[in-house]
Amino acid sequence: MASHLYLSLTDLLLLRQEAQLNRMAAAQEATTELLKESLETLVQVRDSLKALGSKAEGRTPESVVCVSPFTQVGGSCLLLALDELHTWQSARQFCAGYGADLAHFSDVNTFAAILEYIKTISIFYNLSKNVNIWIGESDEAVEGTWVWVTGELMPRGAPFWGTRDGNLPEPADDRRQNCVVLWKRDQYYLHELPCTHEAAPLCQI
Questions:
Q1: Which pLDDT does position 36 carry in this prediction?
Q2: How many CA atoms lie within 13 A of 38 on its CB side?
Q3: What is the pLDDT of residues 141-195, one digit of tens each?
């Protein structure tokens, strides 16, 4: 009888411990999600404050001075090296040689300015072949969380991301594809590709 009671108490203690562990796991998951949402909110606030700061200081795209071979585009200095083909990491190293990194953007106007710049350079090069262009975005750290090389989060969907077969929206969140190109065959909208793909670097200072 005492042995039976002892086993029952043991089972009860184990059940209580299991329930407590389940509650702790659920709380940890909720905390992680809350932290992720807080990070996204802070990034948005930071970007808004940066934009307001630029306006307050009177900085405009026209006031940015770029040194050759860089060109002023949308308030930044860009270099598109269409005659260079690199993996994503190698493209970053190429840009680093100029004191730059792969390009990033956070608003539609800058994206439109970059697309116009690419179109101009492509005409100059008389480019007919399909050369994709690396930009500084990946989800290598956390699958499905797309982050610029600056640490800023990149939103999904229109107007930046393109579509693939069947008009399915990019990114596909394929674990084998963790880096982002401007995809020539889709009018240079964003597509995810393996980081070992070779594409032209778009550098930004």
A1: 56
A2: 6
A3: 999 899 999 999 988 888 899 998 767 899 987 899 999 999 999 999 999 999 9
> CA of 47: how far to CAs of 41, 105, 145, in Å?
10, 11, 18
ω before 159 within 30° of 0 (cis)?
A: yes
Distance, in Å, from the CA atom of 179 to the CA atom of 193, rounded to the nearest integer, reads 6
The runs of H, that is alpha helices, within 66-155 are: 88-96, 108-125
- Separation CA 136–CA 15 (nearest Å): 49
Ramachandran angles phi, psi of 71, nearest 5°: -125, 140
H/E element holding 97?
none
Q: 182 in helix, strand or coil?
A: strand
Convert the pLDDT of each residue in 34-88 to its tens digit.
Answer: 555 555 554 454 555 455 545 444 545 556 799 999 999 988 999 999 999 999 9
What's the pLDDT score for residue 56?
A: 45
Alpha-carbon gap, residue 173 to 169, rounded angstroms: 10
Cα–Cα distances (Å) from 108 to 55, 77, 88, 105, 143, in that order, read 17, 17, 24, 8, 25
The pLDDT of residue 45: 46
Structure tokens at 56: 């307050």
- Judge whether 108 and 161 are in contact, CB under 8 Å: no
Q: Which of 102, 108, 103 is nearest to 89 (CA)?
A: 102
Residue among 70, 190, 205 at smallest CA distance from 134? 190
